[in-house]
């Protein structure tokens, strides 16, 4: 009987003692890091593809002006790694303010969804100078007319304050007394909004507006009394007295007009003034940007340190502008995928980029402005881009490409196996403030289509190859004409999917005599 009691007590106490012992042991085994990302987002009424920024973890979608931001119909919302989403995804979303979602795997990741919406608004009146100015916050539209206009007997010819297809009350064509502010309300479906229209007189019939100056051209703006003589611009160097009349195309939008003056000299001060109907605006001074260039774009200078070749005069801060993937490739080998070439050239030396494999891992031949920071696992950490503040129009040079057949690929790009490799030459102007931190191990790569810091992109891809050197001249596609860059990134790679360890180990790209253009 006593033995039986002992067995019962032991059976009860053993799991309790085990649990107590376990509770005293710290769990120092980390959870696996599985990143959760929004991979697809689509709503009804969007005007373009949503921009998904995996670095800042946000999504931006632009919506047509007819969409009610408080009731946006969701069409697609996809996440990676089967992450849980909080709050729960609904068929209709309120995007009048940024929405924050938590994506959960073993960790939580906060994502923000932003909606932008541009409503074209205008008020057009007789004797109007320039276009109306709209204060979205105060809901005030300011209209400027000539000093001869009788404000108590003024006629508005056109008005649009709300979405396309909205109506306005009262009827603006029946309101003629604008000696005081007048209120108008737009109506669209179940939505409405009231705006105040104020009219002021100006003694100036022609106004010189803002100037956006590049190195050899300037975008100039002006305002005039719509319906008067065709507007134009006068300009000169500030050091000269004689004015030149702009003879190119002038774009007119209501009472506003603009033009692009070309043939200017860099780092030079100019004066410009608007002219229309015999009246001239005030003189505005502006200075063109400098023509900035990147050292060693002809790839004449090379230095070898240890096992690695570098495309620089030396490795001091004053001359360290370019780098390659050589330091990663030769960590456990003697290979330099990118090397100086003295035979296959346009002039002097060129850069030879030969994709290869190191211990079975694909390494693309490449060259870029920036620095190789460190080897991380099977990949690398790079600082992409160098300081740069000018706005060139393009980049030109020569390249010679022999593509091999793709024989290395990660799972996501296995469909490329057996196909021709593709080289990629591109340049990016960005306002990142600091170099872009690229990491091929963690997948923190530069998204050329969606990265919000990119101001302009010039790109060339070739999957066919060339018969010797061919000249290229690619232009920057500016996504913003107002933002100024802080960095420039120039990249040439024998295998465009090298960041994904995908390409051909027999692809070879030669690059020579690169140059930024400022036409």
Q: How is the secondary structure organized here?
A:
Layout: H1 2-23, E1 38-43, E2 51-53, E3 58-63, E4 72-79, E5 84-86, E6 92-93, E7 99-104, E8 108-117, E9 122-125, E10 133-135, E11 140-146, E12 156-160, E13 167-169, E14 182-188, E15 191-202, E16 206-213, E17 217-224, E18 232-237, E19 244-245, E20 251-253, E21 256-262, E22 269-276, E23 279-280, E24 284-287, E25 303-305, E26 308-310, E27 322-323, H2 326-329, E28 338-341, E29 350-354, E30 356-358, E31 361-363, E32 366-376, E33 379-384, E34 386-387, E35 394-402, E36 423-430, E37 436-439, E38 454-462, E39 470-475, E40 477-478, E41 487-493, E42 508-517
Parallel strand pairs: 3-8, 11-15
Antiparallel strand pairs: 1-4, 2-3, 4-6, 5-7, 7-8, 9-12, 10-11, 13-14, 14-15, 16-17, 17-21, 18-19, 18-22, 20-21, 22-23, 22-24, 25-26, 27-32, 28-29, 29-42, 30-31, 32-33, 32-41, 33-37, 34-41, 35-39, 35-42, 36-38, 36-41, 38-40
Radius of gyration: 31 Å
Number of domains: 4
- The CATH architecture term of the largest domain is Sandwich
Q: What's the CATH first level of the largest domain? A: Mainly Beta
Proportion of residues in extended strands: 35-45%
Question: How far is the N terminus from the C terminus?
Answer: 104 Å
Number of helices: 2
**Fourth CATH level, the homologous superfamily of the largest domain:** BT2081, beta-jelly-roll domain
| Low-confidence segments | 1-27
Largest sheet, strands/sense/barrel: 9 strands, antiparallel
Tell me the helix content. under 10%
Average per-residue pLDDT, rounded, comes to 91
What's the total number of strands? Answer: 42
The shape is: flat
Helix and strand composition category: mainly beta
**CATH fold-level topology of the largest domain:** Jelly Rolls
């Amino acid at each position: 009987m006593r033995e039986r009691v002992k067995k019962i007590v032991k059976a009860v106490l053993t799991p309790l003692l085990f649990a107590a012992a376990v509770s005293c042991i710290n769990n120092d085994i980390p959870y696996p890091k599985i990143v959760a990302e929004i991979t697809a987002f689509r709503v009804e009424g969007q005007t373009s593809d949503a921009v998904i920024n995996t670095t800042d973890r946000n999504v931006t979608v632009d919506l047509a002006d007819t969409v009610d931001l408080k009731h946006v119909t969701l069409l697609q919302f996809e996440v990676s790694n089967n992450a849980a989403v909080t709050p729960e995804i609904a068929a209709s979303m309120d995007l009048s303010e940024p929405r924050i979602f938590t994506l959960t795997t073993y960790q939580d990741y906060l994502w923000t969804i932003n909606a932008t919406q541009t409503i074209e608004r205008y008020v057009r009146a007789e004797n109007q100078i320039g276009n109306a100015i709209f204060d979205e916050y105060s809901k005030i539209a300011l209209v400027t007319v000539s000093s001869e206009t009788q404000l108590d007997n003024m006629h508005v010819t056109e008005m649009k304050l709300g979405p396309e297809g909205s109506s306005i009350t009262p009827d603006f064509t029946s309101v003629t007394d604008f000696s005081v502010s007048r209120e108008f309300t737009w109506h669209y479906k179940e939505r409405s909004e009231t705006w105040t229209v104020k009219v002021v007189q100006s003694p100036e019939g022609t106004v010189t507006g803002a100037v956006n100056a590049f190195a050899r051209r300037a975008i100039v703006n002006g305002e005039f009394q719509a319906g008067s003589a065709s507007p134009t611009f006068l300009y000169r160097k500030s050091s000269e007295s004689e004015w030149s009349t702009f003879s190119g195309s002038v774009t007119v939008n209501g009472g506003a007009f603009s033009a692009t003056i070309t043939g200017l000299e860099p780092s030079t001060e100019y004066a410009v003034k608007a002219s229309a109907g015999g009246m001239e605006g005030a003189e505005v001074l502006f200075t063109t940007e400098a023509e900035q260039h990147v050292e060693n774009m002809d790839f004449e200078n090379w230095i070898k340190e240890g096992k690695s070749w570098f495309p620089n005069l030396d490795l001091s801060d004053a001359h360290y502008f370019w780098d390659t993937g050589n330091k990663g490739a030769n960590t456990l080998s003697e290979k330099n995928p990118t090397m100086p070439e003295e035979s296959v050239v346009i002039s002097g030396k060129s850069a030879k980029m030969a994709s290869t494999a190191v211990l079975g891992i694909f390494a693309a031949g490449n060259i870029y402005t920036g620095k190789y920071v460190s080897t991380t696992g099977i990949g690398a950490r790079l600082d992409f881009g160098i300081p740069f503040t000018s706005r060139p129009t393009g980049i030109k040079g020569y390249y010679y490409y022999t593509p091999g057949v793709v024989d290395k690929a990660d799972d996501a790009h296995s469909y490329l196996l057996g196909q021709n490799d593709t080289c990629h030459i591109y340049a990016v102007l960005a306002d990142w403030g600091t170099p872009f931190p690229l990491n091929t191990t963690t997948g923190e790569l530069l998204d050329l289509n969606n990265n919000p810091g990119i101001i302009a992109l010039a790109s060339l891809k070739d999957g066919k190859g060339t018969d010797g050197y061919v000249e290229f001249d690619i232009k920057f596609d500016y996504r913003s004409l107002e933002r100024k860059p802080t960095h420039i990134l120039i990249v040439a790679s024998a295998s465009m999917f090298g960041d994904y360890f995908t390409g051909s180990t027999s692809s070879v790209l030669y690059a020579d005599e690169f140059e930024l253009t400022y036409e």
